[in-house]
Amino acid sequence: MPELHLTTCFYLWQAPCCGKLYVCRLCHDAEENHQMDRFKVREVQCCECQTVQQAQQTCQQCHVQFGEYYCDICHLFDKDKKQYHCQDCGICRIGPKEKYFHCVKCNLCLAQDLRGNHKCVENVSRQNCPVCMEDIHTSRIGAHVLPCGHLLHKTCFDDMVRTGAYRCPLCMHSVWNMEDHWDQIDKEIAQSPMPTEYQGATVKIICNDCQAHCTVPFHVLGMKCSGCGSYNTAQEGGLIQQIHSHNVPPTTISDLSNKCLERK
């Protein structure tokens, strides 16, 4: 869920760190060599009458409203977006509040349809996005929850999908239902038999989706997990069985791929 940020302003924050006036903490942080702690903000200046005053929703002098929504903890002013302050997250979230719940273990607010329907990862929102390595918890960019429970910025997830990547950058678990793709690989393997000298070859694999360790037939197009049927697997060691091993010349994976293609 994104953090809130005001673009149209009727006030200026007085930074508690340097005393300078800024539209928001992001503008301050981009200009200064230090960061503003918004929770320590005590005063704002009205842009209409220039009165410096205690942070509050309405100007005490000219009564202009600084924001339809105001949080006295975050000192956040914004248009009404059904915001609410989550005490456990420590920041304001875009609501409405009844559509979200705070997962204590993950330590973030999630949509109600994920209640009891997501994999918990302790304090996951306090980790940086594994794609851009930037903060997720206080980011204005929404977060995408992967099936494995890890979080990415929504924009980073979209960029990853566009490149054809389908694994979580942290644990390598598939990031969506891949059954149709696995079925397609099944068909391609059925149409691309391995060269005779390799048809008895097997290999040990670990499945990135179910973590099973198993021994399966070797094929250059993919090794299928015998536990869950996923091709999101990694080979552990070399070939462990070759029926015609004494006749096998030195061969690269590229050579095997070419041989399979020639047979199609």
UniProtKB/TrEMBL annotation:
It comes from the Eukaryota. Pfam families: zf-CHY (PF05495), zf-RING_2 (PF13639), zinc_ribbon_6 (PF14599). Residues 1-64 form the CHY-type domain. Keywords: Metal-binding, Zinc, Zinc-finger. GO terms for cellular component: nucleus. Residues 66-128 form the CTCHY-type domain. GO terms for molecular function: ubiquitin protein ligase activity; zinc ion binding. This is Ring finger and CHY zinc finger domain containing 1. It comes from Sparus aurata.
